[in-house]
């Protein structure tokens, strides 16, 4: 095992693992500490670089997915940017702020060791036995990282005072369903591919896989919908085959961000609209007002549902969700449907099969009603296991702290685990704009590292994280996702107060109440 006395170990202050959106945001905000960034691939961008389909587009407008100090060119363009445009934006940002010099590409962190036990851990930030927290940069290393470079078997060890993990929840490790004996992939004679592998295909490879094939797509979230569209595109014409989507739980999908002529943002992205929803630590008076206003909150959800049922043929195809729209929005499960999605369904190129349970047979997929769907190719849009990815590199006992009955990682301010010292996690909560969420969390983290404020004791941090998860559980049956979409402004208010900023970011009370909040509202003032 490596030791701090080993002269081959390179010692530095801050390590950042991952150069995706969150890693770039953290690098920018911590750049004055000259962090070392380890990126396993050969480029920045994370999932936008190595886990996007040829047709993948952002689900937000440009102005809603931008860094506070780096506006998009043509930011008022109403088109959703492609994954190529997003990569170009991220690369421009990294080069503009000279962040690339900090990044070590093709450098995979394969193991993390805690070495703080050699020192006075009672002064370590985030340490359990004490209610007082010392500096996040104590002056000596607390973590060692084992890094493989250029896919070699040689490991170089590094030591750091603080580690920021930005490996993200998506990509790298596929979540595969479990099956009974002789009901799994081993009995299927066709080809099975998870979205993790499909996204590595170029356009010609994807077309070759799908064209003229009977394809079954398992799932009905954004990635599955995009897959079905690519399949339909590859099978145009009389000889083209249909793509069948296995739909377990239909979720609300929207065609665009206008509802009965009103901008979608007024319903959920203003301070007034979020006042209707539960939030952590809201106090008795606010809780009572929230309860009294709950009919208005449900009315907003019904209002949006009425438009979606009028605009989209959800009833026709048996895709009307059984839960309110607000539960999908609260859990960050709302998806933008491609413009021609239901046109392809009308042409018979996309079919839908509702099924709570399914398995494989030699010729395809079998559902719980004993229906058999023939398939040449089965595409699994069944998600990713971001927590497993973290557990692979974190040491015992810290990896066990990632588990919680609610299924999410309990993070104070969405950034630090109260029981894991001198480590932060950026990019593990969801909101309307994950980029903006990662940036404000990185600003908060930078202020913490610079000792502009101190976090409370461990018990208080644990209590706050549990309360936040309880709010999610009360708000949606899909609570096993750390989503702050309906109280994102309140969440940012708390971080602003910690940093020492005013929580009210707009120039008048009218705008404060009724104007949507964006990343531009949190731009640092010199």
Question: Which features characterize this protein?
Answer:
seven-stranded mixed beta sheet, single chain, alpha/beta, 17 helices, Flavin_mOase, FAD/NAD(P)-binding domain
What does this structure look like?
Helices cover about 30% and strands about 15% of the residues. By secondary structure, it is an alpha/beta fold. Strands 1, 2, 3, 4, 5, 6 and 19 form a seven-stranded mixed β-sheet that branches. A five-stranded parallel β-sheet has the order 7-18-8-9-14. It has a three-stranded antiparallel β-sheet with strand order 15-16-17, with no helix packed on it. A hairpin with a 2-residue loop joins strand 11 and strand 12 (about 260-265). The protein has two domains: about 10-170 and about 385-520, FAD/NAD(P)-binding domain (3-Layer(bba) Sandwich), CATH 3.50.50; about 185-255 and about 310-380, FAD/NAD(P)-binding domain (3-Layer(bba) Sandwich), CATH 3.50.50.60. Helix 1 runs parallel beside helix 14. The chain is built from 17 helices and 19 strands.
For the record, the CATH class of the largest domain is Alpha Beta
Overall pLDDT:
90
Sheet bearing the most strands, described? 7 strands, mixed
Count of alpha and pi helical runs: 17
- Backbone shape: globular
Instruction: Compute the number of structural domains.
Output: 2
Report low-confidence residues grouped into runs of 5 or more: 118-133
Which superfamily, in CATH terms, is the homologous superfamily of the largest domain?
FAD/NAD(P)-binding domain
**Share in helix:** 25-40%
């Amino acid at each position: 095992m490596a030791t701090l006395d080993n002269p081959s170990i390179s010692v530095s202050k801050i390590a950042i693992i991952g150069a995706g959106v969150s890693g770039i945001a953290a690098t920018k905000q911590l750049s004055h500490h000259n962090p070392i960034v380890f990126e396993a691939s050969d480029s920045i961008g994370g999932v936008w670089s190595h886990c996007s389909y040829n047709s993948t587009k952002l689900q937000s407008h440009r102005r809603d997915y931008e860094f506070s100090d780096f506006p998009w060119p043509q930011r008022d363009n109403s088109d959703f940017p492609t994954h190529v445009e997003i990569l170009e934006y991220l690369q421009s940002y990294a080069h503009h702020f000279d962040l690339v010099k900090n990044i070590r590409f093709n450098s995979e962190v394969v193991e993390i060791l805690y070495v703080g036990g050699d020192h006075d851990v009672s002064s370590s930030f985030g340490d359990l036995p004490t209610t007082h927290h010392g500096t996040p940069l104590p002056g000596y290393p607390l973590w060692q990282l084992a890094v493989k470079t250029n896919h070699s078997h040689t490991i170089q060890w590094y030591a750091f005072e603080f580690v920021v993990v930005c490996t993200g929840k998506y990509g790298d490790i596929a979540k595969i369903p479990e099956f009974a004996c002789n009901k799994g992939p081993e009995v299927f004679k066709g080809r099975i591919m998870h979205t993790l592998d499909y996204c590595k295909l170029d356009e010609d490879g994807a077309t070759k896989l799908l064209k003229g094939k009977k394809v079954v797509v398992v799932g009905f979230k954004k990635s599955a919908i995009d897959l079905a569209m690519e399949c339909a595109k590859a099978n145009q014409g009389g000889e083209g085959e249909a793509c069948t989507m296995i739909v377990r739980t239909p979720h609300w999908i929207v065609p665009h961000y206008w509802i009965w002529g009103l901008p979608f943002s007024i319903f959920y992205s203003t301070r007034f609209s979020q006042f209707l929803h539960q939030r952590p630590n809201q106090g008795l008076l606010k809780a009572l007002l929230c309860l009294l206003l709950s009919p208005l909150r449900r009315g907003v959800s019904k209002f949006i549902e009425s438009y979606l049922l009028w605009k989209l043929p959800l009833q026709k195809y048996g895709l009307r969700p059984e839960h309110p729209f607000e539960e999908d929005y609260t859990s960050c499960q709302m998806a933008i449907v491609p413009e021609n999605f239901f046109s392809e369904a009308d042409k018979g190129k996309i079919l839908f099969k509702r099924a709570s349970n399914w398995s494989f047979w030699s010729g395809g997929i079998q559902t719980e009603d004993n229906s058999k769907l023939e398939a040449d190719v089965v595409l699994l849009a069944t998600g990713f296991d971001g927590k497993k990815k973290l557990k692979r590199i974190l040491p015992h006992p810290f990896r066990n702290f990632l588990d919680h009955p609610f299924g999410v990682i309990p993070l104070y301010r969405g950034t630090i685990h109260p029981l894991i010292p001198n480590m932060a996690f950026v990019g593990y909560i969801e909101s309307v704009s994950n980029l903006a969420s990662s940036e404000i969390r990185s600003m908060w983290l930078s202020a913490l590292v610079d000792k502009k404020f101190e976090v409370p004791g461990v018990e208080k941090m644990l209590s706050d994280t549990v309360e936040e998860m309880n709010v999610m559980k009360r708000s949606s049956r899909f609570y096993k996702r750390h989503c702050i979409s309906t109280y994102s402004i309140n969440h940012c208010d708390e971080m602003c107060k910690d940093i020492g900023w005013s929580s009210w970011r707009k120039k008048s009370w009218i705008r404060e109440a009724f104007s949507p909040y964006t990343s531009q509202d949190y731009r640092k003032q010199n």
